[in-house]
Specification:
By secondary structure, the chain is mainly alpha-helical. It has helices at 2-17, 27-45, 70-85, 97-105, 116-122, 131-157, 163-188, 199-202, 210-227, 244-258, 261-272, 311-316, 330-335, 341-346, 383-396, 400-413, 425-439, 446-453, 457-464, 479-484, and strands at 109-111, 295-299, 326-328, 347-352, 355-360, 378-382. It contains 20 helices and six strands.
Length: 496
């Protein structure tokens, strides 16, 4: 085992020796290599339960040896999921940081602490040298994209993997690449689009337009739909690996963001019609339990690696007699209608120094015990979103009654009265905005992204945030990336 680790690290030294000018190497490639070493060390030295039952890659994820057996190739793919979920103990883009950063940037969360990096998100005064931007958002995202590219390339050229297995692995890798690109383009705007592991092609890349990134995302998701199975058999029935429905659900969201209303309706409907596999849970307390009928895709939490359940919960739920690190704003709290059961079940509170602080309680266990069975996994996609995607798209198509029907499905579960039909399109849109705000509060940045994509971020946030300025809708490209790549430009309003 140690020999494998030494061999892995040595391969990095060979790579770096091929470049005379290391300063020209993108920082994210440096981070990819640095974290890859740690990730392989983690996988080599730990028993990762169900994540690696198929066997671990015998060398780096990019090694041709990895793809000589189906078991090793599968383990290479699973490594991407694990990187998203655990990220060597870091709180990052794949395991909850999006919820926190976007919640602070919008009007959902306040930060109790004094870390200037996080305060910049809350005040919408981000600096390009903010360490969270690069170390926990940008670099982990591109690391996972690189891993996905490596799986796609390695599986395609392998002569030892069946066609069915190739389809499965490539389909999942393309889904994960699309999922990551979706968040990159919505956080940073135009971003480098990387679809290869050929370092000569990705050392210094310019930013790709948002439109072209979306085209690539759509292409990846359509291929995933064609390649992936309908069920969860490859993950033993757990909803921890992407299937055709996951690709369809994300594609429905992407079409909504692109303004392709009819396509969004079609994709969402294909999920909602799949009653054998998906339905809303009747009890709101069950929505975030692992493997429930509402979940389309979730990330497994491995309690052997870290003594938590969901990392996001560990960051939000306070310790005994302590305030929460992040608590709900008065604006969000007052947005709930009277008797909305989501407020009762998905929000908790604590008294600290005579003041009551409310915090998200969708994930309910702050810290568990290593080796213990965990009740919740981290949900990426769930069926409720498809109802509201279809509602919004239908409203744009002037199918207002259909839109209201879907909104009422969500409202009914929250024990709210149903909305009456109306011919007033503005009223219908307002109802959809309200339901999205409440249903998806503190969940994968939905509120922040909704404010931006609908063009109301400035008009909404300038009222509640004194420091808001136009241009803060996009985060700055990390300073270190700009310095090492002359082809990268900075977003408007930020210093290089």
């Amino acid at each position: 085992m140690i020999d494998n680790i030494y061999s892995y690290i040595a391969s990095f030294k060979v790579f770096f020796s091929e470049y005379k000018n290391r300063d020209c190497i993108h920082l994210y490639t440096l981070n990819i290599f640095r974290t890859s070493c740690l990730l392989f060390l983690c996988f080599s030295l730990s028993n990762c339960k169900k994540l690696v039952q198929v066997g671990e890659p015998v060398d780096t994820i990019t090694s041709s040896e990895t793809f000589k057996t189906e078991a090793n190739a599968t383990a290479a793919l699973i490594q991407i999921y694990s990187s998203m979920s655990n990220d060597q103990g870091n709180f990052s883009i794949g395991n909850g940081l999006i919820t926190i950063c976007a919640g602070l940037s919008a009007d959902e969360l306040n930060y109790f602490g004094t870390d200037p990096q996080m305060l910049q998100f809350q005040s919408n005064s981000l600096q390009s040298k903010n360490s969270v931007l690069n170390g926990q958002l940008w670099s982990p995202a591109y690391k996972n994209i690189y891993y996905a590219n490596a799986v796609i390339e390695g599986v395609q050229i392998s002569n030892n993997i069946s066609q069915n297995m190739k389809d499965e692995l490539i389909g999942e890798a393309k889904f994960l690449r699309a999922f990551t690109n979706f968040y990159l383009v919505n956080i940073f705007g135009d971003v480098p689009l990387i679809s290869t592991t050929d370092w000569t092609k990705i050392v210094q890349l310019p930013r790709t337009s948002k439109e072209d990134v979306y085209k690539n995302i759509v292409s990846d998701l359509k291929e995933s739909q064609n390649l992936l199975p309908d069920d969860y058999s490859v993950s033993g029935g757990e909803r921890t690996r992407a299937n055709k429905s996951a690709a369809t659900a994300l594609l429905a969201r992407v079409y909504l963001y692109m303004g392709n209303w009819a396509d969004a309706v079609t994709q969402a409907t294909s999920i909602l019609d799949n009653l054998n596999n998906y339905s809303l849970t009747k009890n709101l307390a069950d929505v975030f339990l692992k493997d429930n009928v509402e979940t389309i895709l979730e990330l497994e939490v491995n309690s052997d690696l870290f003594p938590y359940t969901v990392r996001e919960a560990n960051q939000i739920i306070p310790e005994i007699s302590a305030p929460p690190n992040y608590y709900i704003t008065s604006q969000l709290l007052s947005a709930f209608e009277v008797n909305d059961q989501r407020k009762k079940i998905w929000i908790d509170s604590i008294d600290f120094l005579g003041k009551k602080y409310y915090y998200p309680f969708k994930y309910t266990v702050r810290q568990g015990e290593g080796g213990a069975d965990v009740p919740q996994y981290y949900i990426l996609l769930r069926i409720a979103e498809q109802y509201l995607i279809r509602a919004e798209a239908n409203a744009h198509l002037n199918n207002l009654n259909k839109a209201i029907d879907d909104v009422n499905v969500i409202r009914s579960r929250a024990e709210l009265s149903k909305l009456f039909y109306t011919s007033n399109q503005t009223e219908v849109f307002a109802a959809i905005v309200q339901e999205r705000r409440i249903e998806f509060f503190a969940e994968w940045g939905h509120r922040w992204l909704d404010l931006k994509r609908t063009g109301v971020a400035s008009s909404t946030l300038s009222i509640v945030k004194s420091g808001w300025k136009t241009g803060a809708e996009l985060y700055p490209i990390p300073w270190s990336e700009i310095q090492t790549d002359p082809n990268l430009s900075q977003n408007s309003g930020y210093d290089q």
